[in-house]
Write a structure and sequence with these properties.
Layout: H1 2-19, H2 23-33, H3 39-44, H4 52-91, H5 110-124, E1 128-129, E2 135-137, H6 138-141, E3 160-161, E4 167-169, H7 175-184, E5 189-198, E6 210-220, H8 225-240, E7 246-253, E8 256-265, H9 273-277, E9 282-291, H10 293-298, E10 307-313, H11 315-323, H12 336-339
Parallel strand pairs: 1-5
Antiparallel strand pairs: 2-4, 3-4, 5-6, 6-10, 7-8, 8-9, 9-10
Length: 342
């Protein structure tokens, strides 16, 4: 009878299924018995040769055999996967006492880190943080800082001019000096002014068109160059190490008089010493000077009664010095290989 053939097919299928030892053998078994061209499909094809009374019995039996073979196949596939997983775990035992993998955390950009470090050092020295705008008038960016129109010192800064006449992107944080002086209205001042500056320069390993600066300003009665020297020395030793020596050289800035540049000695045991200092052993870290009387007047102070000093530095340059980074463009490239080092 046709149903006997189905039972024989069921018996054969179950026996061969139990003999399958891996997933490849199970897939081959499925192709032989349950695929569109498999043995069950061929057996079911005999349905059309049976009488009407036999078709019902044969169809029910055929469906039962197919379900039995399908269920056993699914069970065999599941058991094979469990065996494979167990074999892998046995070959590489899992130590459940080990800590789990932590998710990588975001972090502050290195420029932000160095800015916060500088702010912290000067906060300990009694300075407050004062922030000013990045778009300035020509008057505040140049004229009130002792650089009237056509003054040759303007060539020291390659300026970005806007489409609005007399409005520029600030080339330095020094315009903030005028803002804070006018706001203080004659009172003593001790502030730092961090912020972004812009210069129309060719981008290279040493220069960018935008960069951070930190300006410092102190104004009061009896403020002297000795106060400036002490402040700079204290900052340099906090930033670069307590053993650092400070050297002062004469310089020129239109908004300070006298003007100086400040160097620190670089550790002799640093392998980058000769490259960073160009063989001199000294490294420039900032420019400074006593506030020019004309700038004091522009800010509303009487230079006959008060004096002051100012200084300016590049935080990213500080970071480059501390870590021997030789390309300032790295700060803007968003390369995680670089950023994750900080």
């Amino acid at each position: 009878m046709a149903t006997d053939e189905l039972k024989a097919l069921e018996t054969q299928g179950l026996e061969e299924l139990r003999a399958c030892s891996d997933e490849a053998a199970l897939r081959a078994w499925y192709t032989k018995f349950l695929s569109e061209k498999g043995l069950w499909k061929l057996a079911f094809g005999k349905l059309n040769t049976l009488s009407k009374d036999q078709k019902k019995t044969f169809g029910e039996e055929a469906n039962r055999v197919k379900k039995t073979l399908s269920d056993e196949y699914d069970k065999a596939i599941k058991e094979d996967k469990e065996r494979t997983l167990l074999a892998r775990l046995t070959a590489n035992p899992l130590d459940v006492t080990l800590p789990g993998r932590t998710r990588p955390r975001g972090r502050l950009h290195p420029a932000t880190q160095i800015l916060r470090q500088i702010n912290s050092i000067f906060a300990d020295l009694g300075f407050q943080v004062y922030r000013t705008r990045e778009v300035e008038t020509d008057e505040l960016n140049f004229e009130l800082l002792n650089m009237p129109a056509h003054h040759p010192a303007r060539d020291m800064w390659d300026t970005f001019f806007t489409t609005t006449p007399g409005v520029v992107l600030r080339t330095h944080t020094s315009p903030g000096q005028i803002h804070v002086m006018r706001e203080a209205a004659g009172k003593p001042i001790r502030v730092i002014l961090p912020g972004m500056c812009y210069r129309n320069e060719a981008i290279s390993t040493r220069s960018e068109i935008q960069f951070y600066q930190v300006e410092g300003l102190v104004i009061g009665e009896g403020v002297t160059m000795a106060d400036l020297k002490g402040t700079i020395a204290a900052f340099a030793r906090r930033m670069f190490g307590p053993g650092r020596q400070v050297r002062i050289r004469s310089s020129y800035f239109p908004f300070t008089e006298p003007s100086i540049e400040v160097d620190i000695d670089w550790p002799k045991d640093d392998p980058n010493r000769d490259r960073l200092t160009k063989g001199t052993g000294w490294l420039e870290i900032l420019g400074a000077g006593m506030v020019h009387p004309n700038v004091l007047k522009a800010g509303g102070y009487d230079p006959a009664k008060v004096t002051g000093f100012a200084f300016g530095m590049g935080p990213q340059r500080m970071l480059m010095l501390k870590h021997a980074i030789d390309d300032i463009r790295l700060f803007w490239q968003n390369d995680l290989r670089f950023l994750r080092q900080f």
